[in-house]
Design brief:
Elements lengths: L8 E6 L5 H9 L5 E7 L3 H10 L4 E3 L2 H7 L4 E4 L6 H10 L3 E4 L7 H12 L5 E3 L7 H11 L6 E11 L20 H4 L2 H11 L4 E7 L10 E7 L5 E7 L1 E13 L2 E7 L8 E5 L4 H9 L8 H14 L7 H20 L3 E2 L8 H4 L9 H4 L2
Parallel strand pairs: 1-2, 1-4, 2-3, 4-5, 5-6, 7-10
Antiparallel strand pairs: 7-11, 8-9, 8-14, 9-10, 11-12, 12-13
Helix pairs in contact: 1-10, 4-5, 5-11, 6-8
Length: about 375
């Protein structure tokens, strides 16, 4: 239900694949504030079935038709990655706002084009990084910012998932020109975005990316050593060849270790804290907070609606998103050139600004399609 001072927003979903259901459910959680008025999909049967399932009144064949027929405030982009930037540009040109699934663009250059277009629009763009919005992650950021955990020293970030050959049989997956990258771009991005939201902007990356098991253009494993301006160091692993799947984050501070172990979404119960000897009060303060809601699309949609009500850019805005996307470009640049890459080094004329495979993956010639 909407409350005094809250608007009701007309929303649409573009792309009715699997992730679209999470968006429809998130909007349903905010009935009265968000009204899902239309869906778009190039497959009319799939669009119609989705609209029937979620009680959406209208179906449009494409975004152009939608924007001509409907006055919408917020468009959720759930298409394959290569379509994100072109569709977001259309929405911004119409003066509406965008909530786009990860990865938001195929490259830094595309992201910068969105930043420029947003500056000319009454709309805004936010990226779906729903893991930022669980109660425990907010608690960690709050305690870290207040100095209650002491200095950050070390962090580890693991996204070790399993995707078989059938998964990559979908034509746009595993290709640089349609997916933009491998598990660095499309799988681990949620975990290391959460890492960066806690530790702040990174400073340098030394990385490798390899193709170990899948017959794809992109990597199926990547690893990175990351430094931060305050001296904190972190390791990041992204994989789609790991039979025992996990999504794990660990932060070692002066006064405590804070850990998260989950898979595709967490509750407060998935977090643990281990105090340094003599600092049991830190753990007590952590546990004093109520458990609070889990991560998920519904939490981020609520934050987006709150920001729109207040006339602020919705989270995670393009400036925040750029930190994460630049990290991805730097990881690939380091992996494929063998050089350490610093933040700010990938300028507009850099090859890795325009494609995440930049100068080319070592194995790329053998798998080019």
């Amino acid at each position: 239900m909407s409350e005094p001072g809250q608007r009701s927003y007309r929303c649409a979903i573009v792309g009715t694949g699997a992730i679209a259901a999470a968006h429809a459910q998130a909007l349903r959680e905010h009935v009265g504030r968000a009204d899902l008025v239309a869906v778009v999909d190039l497959d009319p049967d799939r669009a119609t079935a989705f609209a029937r399932t979620w009680s959406v009144p209208r179906v449009s064949p494409d975004l152009t038709a939608l924007l001509q027929r409907e006055a919408v405030d917020l468009v959720h982009l759930c298409t394959p990655p290569a379509h994100h930037a072109p569709l977001a540009l259309q929405v911004l040109a119409a003066g509406a706002s965008v909530l786009v699934e990860k990865p938001p663009t195929m490259s830094l250059a595309e992201l910068d084009a969105l930043i420029a277009a947003q500056s000319r629009s009454t709309g805004s763009v936010a990226t779906v990084f729903q893991h930022r919005f669980g109660a425990a992650a907010a608690r960690l950021r709050r305690m870290a910012a207040a100095g209650e955990l002491g200095r950050p020293l070390l962090a580890t970030c693991l996204t070790q998932w399993y995707r078989d050959d059938a998964y990559f049989a979908v034509p746009w997956r595993g290709r640089w020109d349609t997916e933009g990258g491998g598990p660095t771009m499309g799988h681990g991005i949620h975990q290391f975005d959460l890492l960066l939201s806690v530790l702040g902007p990174w400073e340098s990356v030394t990385a490798l990316a390899v193709r170990r098991a899948r017959d794809v253009q992109t990597e199926d494993v990547s690893m990175a050593l990351v430094t931060f301006p305050d001296g904190t160091v972190a390791s990041v692993v992204n994989s789609v060849v790991s039979p025992r799947q996990t999504s794990a984050l660990r932060f070692d501070y002066e006064y405590a270790t804070v850990e998260l172990d989950h898979l595709y979404g967490y509750t407060s119960a998935d977090w643990t804290i281990t105090a340094t000897p003599g600092h049991d009060d830190v753990a007590a303060r952590w546990h004093a907070d109520p458990a609070g809601p889990p991560s998920g699309h519904g939490r981020q949609v609520a934050a987006v609606l709150d920001a729109l009500d207040a006339g602020r850019p919705p989270p995670v805005d393009l400036a925040d998103t750029r930190i994460t996307m630049e990290f991805i470009a730097a990881l690939y640049a380091s992996a494929f050139t063998g050089e350490r890459v610093h933040r700010g080094e990938i300028g507009p004329n850099h090859p890795f600004a325009h494609r995440m495979d930049g100068t080319g993956a070592p194995w790329q010639a053998a798998t080019r399609r």
